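Journal club side-thread
Mid-discussion, someone asked how the predicted structure for our own chain would compare to the paper's figures. Pasting it here so we can look after the session.
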Amino acid sequence: MIQTYIDVILPLPLSQRFTYLWPIDGGSGPVIGGRVVVPFGTRKYYTGIVLHIHHDVPQDYEVKEVLSVLDETPIVTSEQLKLWQWISDYYMCALGDVYKAALPAGLKLESESMVCINTEIDVQIKLSAKEQRVVDYVADMVECKLSHIAKVVDKANPLPIVKRLIDKGSLMMKENIQRGYRPQKEVWVRLKPAFCDESSLNVLLSSLHKARKQEKLMMAFLENAEELENHTVAKQVLLQRADVSAPILRALVDRGVLDLYEIEVTLSTAHIEHSLVLHALSTPQQKAYEAIYHEWQTKNVVLLHGVTSSGKTEIFTHLIREAIDRGEQVLYLLPEIALTTQITQRLQRVFGEQLGVYHSKFSDQMRSAFWQRQMGDTPYPIVLGVRSSVFLPFRNLGLIIVDEEHESSYKQVDPAPRYHARNVAIMMASQMHAKVLLGTATPAVETYYNAQEGKYGLVHLNTRYQGIELPDVKIIDTKELRRKKIMKGFFAPELLEGMQEAIHNNQQAIVFKNRRGFSPQVECRVCSWVPRCVNCDVTMTYHKLSDRLTCHYCGYSMPRPKVCPQCGNSEIIPKGHGTERVEEILREALPNVRTARMDLDTTRNKNSYERILSDFESGEIDVLIGTQMLSKGLHFDRVHIVGIVQADTMLGYPDFRASERAFQLMAQVAGRAGRKGDQGVVLIQTNTPEDPIYQHVQAHDYVGLYNDVIGDRQLFRYPPFSRLIHVIMKHRDCRQLDILARSLGQYCRQIFDQRVLGPQAPPVGRVQNMYIQRIMLKCSMKDNVQWVHYNLLNIKAYAEQQTFGKGARIYFDVDPY
């Protein structure tokens, strides 16, 4: 009898496929893209994905049998497997790394996985005697490994029975608890029963005659509540339509007229007020819309270069509607979905339940359910997600939109695969014959170069929606102000006066400082001693609220020292400014102004972030201070003035992209001002006003910035005129690392000659007690990619076999920036 063998990939950092024997009595056969449970190593088993089914007997090792089949139909499409292989080849990582990153953990049961009782299920579920034994055992143990359950069911492989219990809801993966997922909630407003009849309502409205704002809010409530069957309105919608602040609503709640309550927002779609019709495009938007379709006739990728607040999202919405009317699926990528709640809500009100949201903040169970739905008969026509969404299954993908395509958040840094979602999306679209639209006001230099060279289509949108003027950008020379003793504190007088005037006119302000914490470091006033992280070669950031020093690389934390360990002096003072300190200074300068801070410290969970945004949108916050979070897709109607403080710190990085990134950040933050109504104002505080980058920001001149940097890129052979690959080497012994780095550098030069730079330590040369060195390889665009990768992998394999390579970690970062 001819025996059947299958090749599988495992969720391990291994590039090779593994062949297993399909047992004769194995029941229904495996399918390509389906999951099977296979043994690996000593007394361990994993969920493998079937890549190939054949009858070729392996000659060099004894083949083990497949333990069981988990899927009768594929869980991964052939297009996905093809994309995984491309990611593995291009980004020089193991295929197992791609598999592990792509599938939610709930779809990757292994012998070391932990399970526990699902306490959220109240319904009595009918279980077999064996299933009940497993549930009782797990309940007694609180949590346990799958390998322990094997003893209870008296089988080498307990995965089938555990999978059934997870599907029934009796058990859940431990990862669900570790993630600490909390469902998003939205505040809604309803009328108290005492005022539901017409006579009581008329009496109430008469009593509000002198309280004009409360009357205005009640009229807005009644107008909008009529549109809904249950006579309720979302709090945020009500405040916006009534154009009043939250305290006015609170007054009516305190009077017992209105009631506030929360509803849970599901994974797929928030509670939808009602479905909105698409707005007609303005004349500039319509021209851009038509130009995109024209470019798509000859090119699959188009760059929409539109200034901030030009209405790019409205064009995206029309393109999505056209695609789903054609029966196609759409993938809408955002740099960080937690930071773009506004776009999510906007699309939900247009497309309703056709929109699915995919995000790592949701539990593994919910993401697994999302994946299963996409593979089923009723997938979401529109998927809104972050970079990991490129791994989702699509049956009929027609359009990919990459919003804010320049954002560095699209690049995965650690762990492998170290992919760039924009580039993966373009490859995925090519494989599935879909179109790609890249949208941004500040394109990445490589993207704009590709558009200029004709590789991508290029469409410009140079005017703001409804003809609103771009903000007036002013450069403040803080060095000169201090020399003249006009500016004694942190804020220039013009910025403080501008914020005061805006708040007086019922407008708002934003202050941008791209460093969190109270101060980047503390220092002894006498001997200048600075505390450094014990695990990393960095100074520790001081957080005043907790009165602790924290390393932002490894998380190590310690109390602020009371005395200097070197000289015994007790004056340990903060040096430099972070957002926490900026907020404190602003509160001292403008004590009557309501401020809030938005950075990683204040938005560690999703609810905190949304609360800050909601309070700012409703007018409960006058000035919002934050880091680059403020630059990502936020729309505020009442922001009139934006202050960018200590702008020079963005230019001081040893990075060929420093000017490009600084321009993008400043231009994007500046774009938050004056998006509705009067022209906004942007004030940039700098000690070097003569730097050309400030003139480009002031003139909203991206093309000028591009022309400035592209010449240097070509001269020094940086992207887009080369491909960069970093060879990263890490070791706990710095001397061993030096030997390894020099040896690898010599081998690389023998093959790649002048393309090699280094080895050298990066700006932070030690992280988590691992010393780091790297070699930069500048590959010509004419170099054969397979030839480059083949030689690098051979060099790595050789180094790992040598004495100096023992205990080292060597990996590659392709397109590292």
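Post-session note: Residues 42 and 574 are 54 Å apart (CA to CA).
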